[in-house]
Amino acid sequence: MSCPSIALAPNAHHERCRRLVTEQEHSVLTQREFCDSRGIAYSTFASWRRRVLDERLAEPADDTPAFVTVELAAEAPTYCPSDTISLTLPSGVRIDGISPSTVATAAALVASL
């Protein structure tokens, strides 16, 4: 048995296929297992699934607002050059711009030398 059925009116056929796609989504079965258990050709089911998903994307849900409120996060603090330190190693290598957020990286760099 495939998804299309001559006995069903076009709208009933479409609703049946939509229902089958929803049932598969809520089941624990893979698409192929679901098709095998229902006697549906996998290629037919995949075609209908693609159409149903396209419809869902094209038609926003009735409860989906056309506009949503967006709140901007507080501006991230920027560091001033005076908030940084420089480190000069005995070899003469100098590491500039060490800030509180980069101390761990600078320590790992020094440890690897």
Uncertain segments: 1-6
Share of β-strand residues: 5-15%
Average of the residue pLDDT scores: 80
Q: Could you give a short account of the major beta sheet?
A: 2 strands, antiparallel
Total number of beta strands: 2
Supply the number of structural domains: 2
Outline: elongated
| Strand order in space, largest sheet | 1-2
Order of helices and strands: HHHEEH
Helix content: 40-55%
Give structural attributes.
disordered N terminus; elongated; 113 residues; 8% strand; two-stranded antiparallel ribbon
Helices and strands in order, then pairings?
Elements (H helix, E strand, L loop, with lengths): L9 H17 L4 H8 L3 H17 L26 E4 L5 E5 L4 H10 L1
Helix pairs in contact: 1-3
If you had to describe this structure to a student in words, what would you say it looks like?
The chain is mainly α. It folds into two domains: 10-58; 82-112, no CATH class. Helix content is 46%, strand content 8%. The protein has helices spanning 10-26, 31-38, 42-58, 103-112, and strands at 85-88, 94-98. α1 (10-26) crosses α3.
Outline of the structure:
The chain is mainly alpha-helical. The chain has 4 helices and 2 strands, in the order H-H-H-E-E-H.
